[in-house]
Design a protein that fits this description.
54% of the residues lie in helices and 9% in strands. The protein is an alpha+beta fold and 507 residues long. It binds protoporphyrin IX containing FE (HEM). The site of protoporphyrin IX containing FE (HEM) has 22 residues, from α6, α13 and α19. This is Cytochrome P450 94A2-like.
Length: 507
């Protein structure tokens, strides 16, 4: 098998080898300068050497380059003459996400890389298909009854599952992986909210159901396609059904089988009851008359992706930051005391300091580190960067949260106060939002995240529910800093080991 993969790769590896050598012999082309931190670029292989050297830390690497770029933009030379524009410039972000929205669809590259997993679902769709999915989904998301439903689901998962597990960990002083626990929590929630189905993934036995294992590997393998030296390589592997592509096919067929069962079961249930008893998103979508089974299956998979790893990643980094910023923790505890029945929605809404802390945490560690569009025609970005038709333009929330030009010289500091104003008389905080194009953590413009309000509601419920009772204490080795890694969404590398301590005074 490995030999076959090698054989397929030879047409790519041989010229690469040749040009690597010629590059080292000094025949490098343009755009290399140590002063500006731009990576060296060579004929044919472009900046492949720098790319592969920084593969495991690409968000940090790109952020370093963009911090040194006067316009906050640079053009990455990928192998075989492929160019990619990378930007942390808010004017460019506004241009591609809003002003010139129809010139910058998701495009062919993104769709072909992810369509095995996501089909024609909302994340890969463009044009009329995206419009109709967006319309159906927005209708289902934007209702008061969904808010109430989310609140109840999250509260139940919190009180019946998360709190007892943390309580047991506190009692036996064990080290637990908080990232894994929060992912399980988010998975149960999204399945209940989106499909009215409870997978019971967060339980004291920490089960590993086939579906979630398949989902994890499908995300990893699909996102590895983005790093492929040439898409033809993974496409050939897929055609031969070998290596990582074979694993991906297996994982995808398990995922589609699972999603299809959910859709069929829900349709059967609705035929029998023909009512919106549970209020989950899928019932709402099916009730709206949208019954193309394949498309609804794609939507189901997209919702799981959207809802599972985003809130859990955000909360993992949030608890890590809180653990070393006691004044922030104290301020949040004060807010929880002032809102004694939080996590109830109306109370959670008042938690502006907590809201600011979550925004600040996602500025430094966004759950989605980067997002790409593809130019449908030749264009020039507001900062003067020339974009040819077919070129990918990627904006990077991870880099943008680390730009001195946008956040000041204290950008490395975790300071929720940068999102707040204090009323001198009452002493109360009020939240001051940044514009969406400077902080596109939830994307912006017509494709802005549909689950943003739901995500904040869930996260604040968790923060209030956990911190009112427990202290989260990192259990990493002395001097060990967590590492931010990114597949389609971000993660803390190796998980987040913590000890849980009960607070002496319950709030
Ligand atoms: C902290 C939590 C979250 C963050 C940071 C976040 C971020 C994002 C981002 C960056 C996008 C654009 C992705 C792309 O186009 O490639 C997006 C889209 C989307 N998100 Fe979220 N998300 C979060 C939670 C959720 C939740 C809980 C849901 C609920 C299912 C959700 C549903 C969606 C949907 C449906 C879209 C597609 C919108 C479209 O293309 O029109 N998100 N989100």
């Amino acid at each position: 098998m490995i030999q076959l993969e090698l054989l397929i790769s030879l047409p790519f590896i041989l010229p690469l080898f040749f040009f690597l050598i010629s590059g080292f012999l000094g025949k490098k082309s343009s755009s290399s300068s140590s002063a500006t931190k731009l990576p060296m670029s060579y004929p044919l292989i472009g900046s492949y050497i720098a790319l592969s050297k920084n593969r495991n830390r690409w968000p940090e690497w790109i952020a370093e380059i963009l911090r040194h770029s006067p316009s906050g933009t640079f053009v990455l030379h990928r192998p075989f003459g492929v160019r990619q524009v990378l930007t942390a410039n808010p004017s460019n972000v506004q241009h591609i996400l809003k002003t010139q929205f129809y010139r910058y669809p998701k495009g062919h590259f993104f769709r072909s890389t992810l369509s095995d997993l996501l089909g024609d679902g909302i994340f890969t769709a463009d044009g009329d298909s995206w419009k109709s999915q967006r319309q159906i989904s927005s209708h289902a998301f934007n209702t008061k009854s969904l808010h109430n439903f989310v609140e109840t689901v999250v509260d139940t998962e919190l009180t019946k599952r998360l709190i007892p597990i943390l309580s047991a960990a506190a009692a036996d002083k064990s080290v637990i992986n908080l990232q894994d626990i929060l992912q399980r929590f988010a998975f149960d929630n999204i399945c209940k909210i989106a499909f009215g189905f409870d997978p019971e993934y967060l339980s004291p036995s920490f089960p590993s159901p086939e579906f979630t294992t398949a989902f994890d590997s499908a995300i990893r393998l699909s996102s590895e396609r983005f790093g492929s030296i040439n898409p033809a390589l993974w496409k050939l592997k897929r055609a031969f059904g070998i290596g990582s592509e074979k694993q991906l096919q297996l994982a995808v067929s398990q995922i589609r089988g699972f999603a299809q069962r959910i859709v069929r079961e829900k349709k059967r249930e609705l035929d029998e009851k023909s009512s919106l008893e549970n209020g989950d998103l899928l019932s709402r979508i099916l009730n709206s008359g949208h019954v193309d089974e394949n498309l609804v299956t794609d939507l189901v998979i997209s919702f799981i992706l959207a809802g599972r790893d985003t809130t859990s990643a955000a909360l993992t980094w949030f608890f890590w930051l809180i653990s070393s910023h006691s004044h922030v923790e104290e301020e949040i505890l004060r807010e929880i005391t002032e809102n004694p029945v939080a996590p109830i929605y109306t109370e959670v809404k008042n938690m502006v300091y907590t809201h600011a802390s979550l925004c600040e945490s996602m500025r430094l560690y966004p759950p989605v580190p980067g997002d790409s569009k593809e130019a449908a025609e030749d264009d020039i970005l507001p900062d003067g960067t020339v974009v040819k038709k077919g070129v990918r333009v990627t904006y990077l929330p991870y880099a943008m949260g680390r730009m001195e030009a946008l956040w000041g010289s204290n950008w490395p500091d975790f300071r929720p106060e940068r999102w707040l104003e204090k009323d001198e008389v009452t002493g109360k905080w009020s939240f001051v939002a940044r514009d969406q194009y400077t902080y596109p953590v939830f994307q912006a413009g017509p494709r802005i995240c549909l689950g943003k309000d739901m995500a904040f509601l869930q996260m604040k419920q968790v923060v209030a529910g956990v911190l009112r009772r427990f202290r989260v204490v990192p259990a990493m080795e002395e001097g060990c800093e967590p590492v931010y890694v990114s597949y389609l969404t971000s993660k803390m590398k190796g998980g987040f080991p913590v000890r849980i301590e009960e607070r002496n005074t319950k709030l």
